[in-house]
Design brief:
D-Maltodextrin-Binding Protein, domain 2, DNA-binding, elongated, two-stranded antiparallel ribbon, homodimer, 303 residues
Chain lengths: 303, 303
DNA sequence: CGTATCAATTACAATTATTCATGCATTAAT
DNA sequence: ATTAATGCATGAATAATTGTAATTGATACG
């Protein structure tokens, strides 16, 4: 009946990865002959070629490309299922794979993870940041179990819950004229160097919610990967940046920087936790959401 | 290395489906003994039980439930991959699995599908309407390849494109006092029987965009599954319904019904086509979008 | 109780996967 | 050119896996 087995997907993947049957065989702890046989059989059964044989080189056919995509999608899920079962067997709870879609999310997560790890010693936490199909796709595709994101999706089989409110502010250095301003207006940025994380402009809040609506652009746009360096640059007067207020205040002991409100009302942001509804009953997952929620409540009371 | 094979998933699924090893064995064209062996081996390798043996009954353990979920998620994808490869082999193009999230979507699809089938004889079209995780989830989970929906999602690895604009109108019968009104106001519905498809109220446009904002509810709410019966009910004065204007006009030869604008401005709606970005290069998929788009343009010119 | 049903087990058979030895084609080097 | 090296394919032999038949023991049910 069924012809596509796990091995086939593994072979296809290994060949792609190592370039030849022989190399793939090595990695799979088999002989080249073994692979050649199984491949031939598979191709016979399917009635099509998976690779073009060009001389002694294998180039995937259209079907091969398709199979490769299937393999890359399904194999990780099988591997993860096995891992999870192993953990089950050892009395461990499992692992929580958390995906991240924004930089402040990451900063926030750092604060939550350590109390969580302490409360749930049997649970591993994996943090992932790159997804082929974006965070939502990673949730649906079982690449991750929990998504930390600034934009929720109230729909379908996912549940989103707000867990953190913060204000996005402009960060300026010690000599900056805006340092003691009550707030900054978009046009006051038009002569500045703006430092941001390496993210598409459409996904940067300071553009979406502040600059772009006013039709303003900064004089220069500089990209920096890490928060520390970014703050050093700001502290040394080389530019301004946009970060969560709580993060700036936390770092203001280390760097001489100050937060300035974006516009008279400020820019309010939220972070959400999203997960599959079917996972809602997993205790260590619920616990994570609950922990995040209490963190939020605690904070709210003190504000 | 790897222990979880396709067979295992198939066995787990069959046992769940048919209630016993013996019955499952029958369906899989194997003996009960064979299953017993493979199951034992799998459980040994995993180091945990998949079923509680209660007398002669098998009840899934937690691990069993988990494996069942994995099986139900992955096996259909393997089956579909095989089918697609078979089609490849036979020179057919493949199949386009279209998911639907609203009733007008279905009506619209009916008009598009037949020219498409004519233009692409080597492509099968499957239409699905129920999804565990909603349409978006079905797209990400490779249950469908194309989603027809009224609410798009501009994000992640999906592309959405508007392909149809229409006006949602109230449908009334021949004797109805509103028949010749320029438009209807929400309060005029408060004494009516409203007929709708069997869909949650939150997902019905006439509530979302018309009644609920005005704080109005109809006197009665009646649920009917098929458009034809719905129109017969309306024609016989048993209630009013909300449908796309084009659909009402098309059916007005068959049923004595008339469209009435909802509110002075009318209620404008759009239908979108969504698909995975990675599929954008599949010719028969592009062709479907293109066909839908030309349909739209043609219609626009005539309005 | 006796019978029917079901899973587990044992011993054995059948099938399938893998290897070994080898050939043939292609690429690279001398 | 000639030789060496590399890579895939093939056939026969063998190892390993997967399956079956027959039987047992347990349990539900009339």
């Amino acid at each position: 009946m069924s012809i596509l087995e796990r091995t086939h997907l593994e072979i296809i993947r290994a060949v792609e990865q190592h370039g030849s049957l022989t190399a793939a065989a090595e990695k799979l702890h088999l002989t080249q002959s073994a692979l050649s046989h199984t491949v031939r059989k598979l191709e016979d059964q399917l009635g099509l070629a998976i690779w073009h044989r060009e001389g002694r080189r294998l180039r995937p056919t259209q079907a091969g490309e398709y199979l490769l995509a299937v393999a890359n999608r399904l194999l990780p899920q099988l591997v993860h299922a096995e891992e999870r079962l192993k953990q089950f067997a050892q009395g461990e709870r499992g692992s929580l794979r958390i995906g991240m879609e924004c930089h402040p999310c990451y900063q926030w997560l750092l604060k939550i993870v350590s109390p969580y790890l302490a409360a749930w010693p049997e649970v591993d936490v994996d943090v992932k940041q790159k997804f082929q199909f974006g965070g939502i796709g990673a949730l649906f595709g079982y690449e991750i179990d929990m998504l930390v994101t600034p934009d929720p999706l109230y729909k379908a089989g996912l549940t989103f819950e707000p867990v953190f409110d913060y204000e996005q502010v402009l960060v300026v250095g010690p000599q900056h004229p805006l340092r003691d301003a009550a707030y900054v207006q978009p046009k006051q940025i038009s002569d500045e160097t703006l430092i941001t994380y390496p993210v598409a402009i459409e996904r940067l809040d300071i553009y979406n919610l502040f600059l772009t609506p006013a039709g303003i652009a900064p004089k220069r746009h500089k990209i920096i990967e890490t928060t520390d360096i970014m703050l050093q640059m700001v502290a040394s007067g080389r530019g301004v940046a946009a970060l969560p207020r709580w993060l700036v205040e936390e770092q203001s002991a280390k760097f001489d920087v100050a937060p300035v409100k974006l516009g008279p009302e400020g820019v309010a942001k939220q972070i959400f936790l999203g997960f599959r509804e079917t996972d809602a009953e997993i205790d260590y997952l619920r616990a994570f959401v609950a922990l995040a929620r209490t963190h939020r409540d605690k904070r709210r009371r003190t504000i």
